[in-house]
Description:
By secondary structure, the protein is of the alpha/beta class. The protein has helices at residues 3-12, 14-19, 62-69, 91-97, 113-123, 128-141, 157-167, 187-204, 215-221, 239-247, 263-270, 295-305, 320-328, 332-341, and strands at residues 22-33, 36-47, 51-55, 77-82, 85-86, 98-101, 175-179, 207-212, 224-229, 232-237, 251-257, 275-282, 285-291, 312-315. The strands form three sheets. A six-stranded mixed β-sheet has the order 6-7-8-3-9-10, sandwiched between helices. A hairpin with a 2-residue loop joins strand 4 and strand 5 (85-86). Helix 5 packs across helix 6 (128-141). The longest helix is centred in the middle third of the chain and has 18 residues, at 187-204. It binds adenosine-5'-diphosphate and magnesium ion (MG). Magnesium ion binds next to helix 3.
Amino acid sequence: xxxxxxxxxxxxxxxxxxxxxxxxxxxxxxxxxxxxxxxxxxxxxxxxxxxxxxxxxxxxxxxxxxxxxxxxxxxxxxxxxxxxxxxxxxxxxxxxxxxxxxxxxxxxxxxxxxxxxxxxxxxxxxxxxxxxxxxxxxxxxxxxxxxxxxxxxxxxxxxxxxxxxxxxxxxxxxxxxxxxxxxxxxxxxxxxxxxxxxxxxxxxxxxxxxxxxxxxxxxxxxxxxxxxxxxxxxxxxxxxxxxxxxxxxxxxxxxxxxxxxxxxxxxxxxxxxxxxxxxxxxxxxxxxxxxxxxxxxxxxxxxxxxxxxxxxxxxxxxxxxxxxxxxxxxxxxxxxxxxxxxxxxxxxxxxxxxx
Length: 355
Ligand SMILES: Nc1ncnc2c1ncn2[C@@H]1O[C@H](COP(=O)(O)OP(=O)(O)O)[C@@H](O)[C@H]1O
Ligand SMILES: [Mg+2]
């Protein structure tokens, strides 16, 4: 079942999902660094065997949340529990339940794949026979079985990241934290790691919290997504429902191709009451979120009144990126002016990134 089907079936079996046990409960979790609030009274629940995504730009507070939940740092305020255990008062119990894959990779290049895993397995006090069997199974699971005796230093980044993930699975955690699991990976490895994450979730019913700044990643993997910005969760829902926020009701997303695009045209479109946001994709394309039945006509009229040559108009299905834009209102106010000011340098915004 792919993630789309999974979301669909999750919705169809909504009642069943409600009955699922809450595995992670976060209440008013807050972290301050010398007066700066990195995580600001965040609350959410994650159900057993759910894949929950924290999606947000760099600096939003994602890693700090993961570090608190995985007992690496203490909250300034608020509480959280995992499997019923308090992350501060019962941190040892929590540690037995969790596995963590962080942005930083710890692997010994001069040891083989198997030696690395055995080293980390010993830290968990896993009996030798059990550990050996588990290492073999995990290596097979990520198709690294035949590289068991090769030094990790010779591995590609994708292979290393798969090692990094199975290292976190050695103690068979009920809860797995993945902090930007595909950061810095090439497209092929990214696909592999995502497939693997889904497989772990499906086969072991592992509850997963993953953080990402990539819209497509959250969209493909997560049952529910919390959009996080400046240390707060602004919206939390399934990917499908988040998109309905944008496309639901009378909201439309239009893409206009205007080869002679000017700042004045953008300003005129932006000034319309029906327009919620305008983002410039590149020198000739505008993406516009608008509401109301008159939106289409008003936008075209405003563009034409400013001598726009309109090559094409597309009615788009919203993406999670649109949702972020819709919720935070960011993009054109910060960036579009610069984009237009430099007509010779085409600015293509990387599609999956929030910023
Ligand atoms: N140890 C720290 N000391 C001071 N500030 C920190 C520390 N860790 C994180 N921050 C700040 O907290 C904010 C959130 O950081 P982080 O949780 O790493 O965000 P994300 O993982 O979403 O990129 C950032 O502004 C960051 O600079
Ligand atoms: Mg981070």
